[in-house]
UniProtKB/TrEMBL annotation:
Main location: membrane
Subcellular location: Membrane
Keyword vocabulary terms for this entry: Ligase, Membrane, Transmembrane, Transmembrane helix
Domain O-antigen ligase-related: 202-343
Record's bilayer topology term: Multi-pass membrane protein
Transmembrane segments: 7-24, 30-47, 59-80, 86-105, 117-137, 161-178, 190-211, 217-234, 243-261, 340-362, 374-390, 436-455
Any GO molecular function: ligase activity
Domain of life, source organism: Bacteria
DNA damage in keyword set: no
InterPro entries: O-antigen_ligase-rel_domated, TPR-like_helical_dom_sf, WaaL-like
Stated name of the protein: O-antigen ligase family protein
Amino acid sequence: MISFRAGLYAVLALVVYGLSWYYNGQLIPLLAAGSIVLMIWGAIVWWPCLRAGLIWPRGFLPIFMLLWFVWFGLTLFWSGSPYSSWFYFWVLGALPLTFLIAIMIPEPVAEQFWVWLWRGILISAWILSAMALWQYYQGMVTNIGLANLRPFGPLLDTNSFAAWLNLLFFPVLALYFVKDGRRQVSFLRGGVHLEAFFYLLTLSVLLLAFFSTSSRGGLLAWVCTMPFAVWGLWRQPAARSRFLVVAALVIIAFLLMDYAHGYDLIGHLSPGYITSNITTVSRKLMWIATWHMYLSHPWLGTGIGSYFLNYPAYRLPGELASAGTYAHNDYLEYLAEGGLINLGFLLSFAGILMYAMYRLLYRAGKALQMSDEQRLTALGLVLGVFAITGHALGNFIFYNLPLSVLAGLFMARAWRIYGTSENTQPLLPKIGINHGFIAQIILLLGIVVASWNLLADAATYAFLSDNTWLNSVIKNPRQRTTLLLKVADTLTSLRPLATQPHVYLANTYLTLAERDTRMDSASRRSLVQAALHQYEQSLIGIPQQAGVLNSIGTLYLTQGKLLGLDATQRQRQTLLAWRRGLAINPESISLRNQIAQLAYADQGDVKGGLTFLRAGLARPLFPYPRSELLLDIALMQWRADEKTGAEKTLLRILHENPAYEPAVSWLQSIHRQAELHSGDR
């Protein structure tokens, strides 16, 4: 029975870990499936604990993790973007949640559970290393270019992938010392310990994969963590020879994998390079913008997972090296998204890791009453989590779901080894709950509600965001459209905060009102009102949707007469929606141009329109949008009969972006007309 339960728990944990690999903040069905499996695993583990009245393990860390998870849940109630925060609640909350599940596994089962789980984690280390080496090889044979010759494994970011490899490296390193310490005969005399040799091979492939990423942040985290590993392992018998072997592997891996880059990894850590390199300069600008974001919402922040929605309004000129999705500093992003309390939890977690290392390095042996093998095992796990926590100062780490899941599992195992083994008396009777089934029902209801929402989110993504798979299932376009309309209508009821179903319905209603000429005015008005209502409903879950506000403004402009608005009211409502959208995303060229046309040029104030358009050039714009804005300026200059100025603007576009085809075509047309006029003379 114990073996079955341990195996079941290990399978569920590994399924959660595996499903998290390719989520990357985008594939919502993977997040939904992983979170539901995590809750099922948690329910199976917690069910007998609640029946027994909830016997809670003593110690600070379990209480801290519980409070941290509860805090993430509470932030959903005041988030400025509750629908976006919902997804990041599961990503960031995976760390404390997996910890809370793993520590509640009964002791006899927990040991066997870890044996099976660790085997799966070791297999994942080999799979990830193989992915890295294969991606590196593919980049080499296809001449992908040095800047892109950096494997990222199943993630979208190579630095986060390097952090993942660091997370795995240190526990494997500690276990190599533990297993090799059992060898009675020296290696040169044929004393090979097969398990230790396997860990040595695992270290080798991890190091090859790690250096193939050429991650400066990963290397700095590794360098800063390695002294603690040396400190903890140095007193072991024959530690010097083992460290020489590891050092040789490090040197070989670096020489092999950084060769294609000209060994520039070390040079990229020099102060001169860091202060001048565009990626680090952009990080500084991003951190300043993130600080400004925090100052605008100093108490409770903007809501977890809302950074990418708010960042466009704070992006500083000169920062064009990032997509603006994450702050590349989890501590600052925690501060901006959740205020000082949110940052306090992350800093406290870092402090807990430091205290754990202090206990394992200074209070080992009799003080903690554990064997050296247990101490080193726990130390390796803590060091792995410590490495990624330090790496989070320069990259987004905890926003990667597999890293959060694995960090929670590692901390649970480490705490089980070095923490107290005592439990409290049943807690539920102390708070007046004398029947454990009441807590079980509450747990079950919570899982059902959360799973209901997650399944609705997965359906929203599958049917409305990425529904190309449906083309092969339903060949008839009319039938597909009818099905999608029914799905969207159902989802608006099942998941009111989901934005995509509302937008889909609004677009459909508006299309019907515009295209069906046989429809009477009353029916068209009803459809337009329904479309406007759906657009407004979509802003409840995520208010920072400049595109939706653009659509609302266009609706007022084109269909406002049907709604009973006069010309002045239509213009006022349109400009109000468009200006709200531009405030959210000042980089939007279409919104800026539309406002310039309606508010200025159409009123006869072309110069005012030009001034408004030119103000957009002060915003941080990527090359193509910048060319688009300059083209809009040239068009308005032409409209104002400033033909010479328009030509100069077009030439400026080609100077900055020679491949911008609209400017090339327009200049060619101007020159052809000039030649025709000169020929007529």
